[in-house]
Amino acid sequence: MTNDQGAVLLSPLLPDDPPKVGDFWLDARLTSTVAGVAYIAHDAQATSVLLIMLSEGAAQDAAARDRLAGAVNQMHIDTVVARGGEGQDGGRLGRRYRSEDDDPTEPGATPQAPWVALAYDGSAQSGAEAVRILDEIELRGLRQVGRPAGPGFQLNWINKFHPGSTRLWPLPWPGRHDRAGALSILASWLLMMLMAALAVLVAILLFQQSPPVSPPPPVPPTSPQSPSGSPNPSDSPNPSDSPNPSDSPSPSDSPNPSNSASPSPSSGSPNPSETSSGGGSPTPDSRL
Question: Cα dist. 212→120, 122, 200, 201, 216 in Å?
Answer without folding.
Answer: 73, 74, 21, 20, 13
